[in-house]
Amino acid sequence: MKKNKRGAKDVVTARRAEELLCKTAPVIRGLLAEPSASDGIPYNRVILKFSPFKSAKKPALCLDWLGDAVSPEEIREKTGKAIRNFSKAYGSKPQVVLIPGVGILYVEKTKNTGLPLQNEVAVVTGAGGAIGSGICRGLLEKGCCVAAADLSKKSLDTLVGELGKKAKGRIIGVEMDVTDKDSVARGFNEVIRTWGGADIVIANAGIPLIGKLIDMEVADFRKLEKVNVEGTLLTLSEGSRLLCLQGTGGDIVIVSTKNVFSPGAGFGAYSATKAAAHQLGRIASLELSGFDIRVNMVAPDAVFSDGGRKSGLWEKVGPERMRDRGITDMKELQEYYRNRNLLKARVTARHVANAVLFFVTRQTPTTGATIPVDGGLPDATPR
User: Any long-range contacts for 262-269 (C-beta under 8 Å, 24+ apart)?
Assistant: First the structure.
């Protein structure tokens, strides 16, 4: 079969246009944000939509100097100057930005809801599970736009269908393999194409393994390391790169576990890999504070479900935990975990979401910290 040179050229051109869009849109979104009077969230952000149209009816800011060789720093400097000149000429910042050869970016008009996370955009990995879906729901209720990311398309379709009923246009499903750098990058680029950028990253994806260290196969341990450690690293890396590019700060929350502070026998691989992910979060808080990017952790104990959505972790480890405790019923196992904490509280996905919301709504000037969501477990100190 002969290669179609024109077709190949069109593909290359489209790829370059996509790369330019994803490199430019977050910078523009950050520059169009207005400083906030709030002590917490520093900016009133905008939702920036993309259209392939090559012209605009409203007065548009044309960035005709953009090209493949332009660095993010140069994009920020030149675009910032162009926006200031536009504002002097028209009395306000541009609502439409034309990128020749790519299309237009325009500010979506949204009604003021008074919700604290209006026009904020969040990316949640592992969104198809119990904790992930609970976090997505909590963010949506506070006005956020949510990119629910997961490896399972079926779980995503179900979740988006369910939550989208009350949050139309504010949730999308993004297929993402957190162990694959290119997949993570494509996922974040999809968020940029949809809303112009992101402000919140929730690193929640993780998998468990039951087994004593003496019997553990290195290959099995590496599976957990791949998801729980490398997956967190790639999410942190790509997410922080986007937040830095945008230039308006942001929040990253890692869903850790009580096992970091109180590991369980037979749960060594999970405890060790989640501890490594937790440590990555603490280091990220040191490295990103100068960009006003806060990195915090939440450490829940057993969360079995979110409504009708079962926890994949407990579906896998539950049977073994029941055998160890002479329990034959999952409800009885849930009661066991409720009764072992000081408050005799059943820990839910809603509770985890509330802890995440505490951080991302910036109730206090905090970074590098952990909120335990466990009902009070004395052996899980330091608290």
Answer: 262/377, 262/379, 262/380, 265/212, 266/210, 266/211, 266/212, 266/320, 266/324, 267/208, 267/209, 267/210, 267/317, 268/211, 268/212, 268/213, 268/216, 269/209, 269/211, 269/216, 269/220, 269/221, 269/224
CA distance 291 to 242: 12
Q: What is the DSSP letter of 226?
A: I
CATH for 121-380 (3.40.50.720, 1.10.260.40, 3.30.160.20, 3.30.160.270): 3.40.50.720
Q: How far apart are CA 311 and CA 4, in angstroms?
A: 49
Higher pLDDT, 151 or 1: 151
Which are the contacts of 4, defined by CB distance < 8 A and separation ≥ 6? none
Asked if residue 234 lies in contact with residue 176, where contact means CB atoms within 8 angstroms, the answer is no
pLDDT of residue 68: 66
- Inform me whether the pLDDT recorded for 163 exceeds 60: yes
Report the pLDDT value the prediction gives residue 13, as an integer from 0 to 100.
Answer: 67
pTM over 0.90: yes
**pLDDT value, residue 5:** 56
What residue ranges do the domains of the chain occupy? 15-107, 121-380
